[in-house]
Amino acid sequence: MKIHEYQAKELLSRYGIPVDKGFLCTNMDEALKVYSQLPTKSAIIKAQVLIGGRGKAGGVKIVHSEEAYKQRVNDILNMDIKGLPVKKILVGEVVNIASEYYLSLVIDRETKSVLLMLSSEGGMDIEDVSRTKSEKIHRFLIDSPWGVTDFLARRAAFKLFDNLALVQQAADIIKQLYRLLVATDASLIEINPLVLTVEGKLVAIDAKINFDNNALYRHPDIAQLAETNEEEKKEQEAKAKGFSYVHLTGDIGCMVNGAGLAMATMDMIELYGGKPANFLDIGGSSNSNKIVEAMKLLLADKQIQVVLVNIFGGITRCDDVARGLLDAFSTIRTDVPVVVRLTGTNEQEGRKILEGGPFHIAETMEQATRLAVEKVNH
Length: 378
Prior knowledge:
Elements: H1 5-14, E1 22-25, H2 28-37, E2 43-47, E3 60-63, H3 66-77, E4 80-81, E5 84-85, E6 89-92, E7 97-108, E8 113-119, H4 126-132, E9 137-142, H5 150-157, H6 164-184, E10 186-197, E11 202-204, E12 207-211, H7 220-223, H8 230-240, E13 244-247, E14 252-256, H9 259-271, E15 278-281, H10 288-299, E16 306-313, H11 318-331, E17 338-344, H12 347-354, E18 360-362, H13 365-377
Parallel strand pairs: 14-16, 16-17, 17-18
Antiparallel strand pairs: 1-6, 2-3, 2-6, 4-5, 7-8, 7-10, 8-9, 10-11, 10-12, 13-15
Keywords: ATP-binding, Ligase, Magnesium, Metal-binding, Nucleotide-binding, Tricarboxylic acid cycle
EC number: 6.2.1.5
GO biological process, one term: succinyl-CoA metabolic process
């Protein structure tokens, strides 16, 4: 689960980590009231959306006059960042930045421990740093029985600073971040940038925190912060109907029974030059109503140009899937081509049922995948 920057900063502040002062606004009137209370004409306006890359998308602006402030507030509140509309902004004072740093804690599944990462190259281009200047990113594994010891915190802080006062500030922040991660079952805490001000203070002026969904039952105060977007609502709706759905960025919709077959289908699509639009596993049911609901879910995605139905009939009978497809297309009108591959239990019966329907029938997985990719390209 993700939370907004302003919510993340509230949590950091609870654990004694310095953050810059900000005020949440949802409309122009609130924003103007906040601006009138700022000590200077300068202000920073930041879109609050649950996605990265706000700065590069134009969702973070610094202004130095009321006229510019009004214009930027209006622009940001009416913008869309990677498909997400901006409904809230965070307005704050402009911090006097001397230098920027990167600091994060993340669960490392491979080593089964928490990974601490730091860099003196903080800011919007941290992804580029990881690719082109990997030596600038320092990593420390944290042993869970001991946590972040004073020694480890100071050793990490010395990678960023030579000044002992700054080392101590950074070490304290690192220790408190780890306390926060453990106490809230967070899977990621990222401060980017952690800035050194002209006044010599370390301040978190942006923050990102993700939580382990499986542990939210232990944290009702955090669970209530959840804000689902349209994709997440669709995934929850799919789960309620008995199948697993994950939205992707391609244009070939996949309806498959079984997670392993779903992964193999997506790999085959990539192999032949296509892009899967989703992961959709209808499970082992022979319920034709499930097929109808799954097809409706797929065709509701406007980016899909082709649907690939890949069914291995075991518990799921191919003739039931075929009837479900016919039922679906008796009520759904679409120009999207549908490629169907049925194999296994009652596959011959299933193919016969689909004869004469609005489907492109394939007998092998390779044939079906190639056909789906060709339909996109044409």
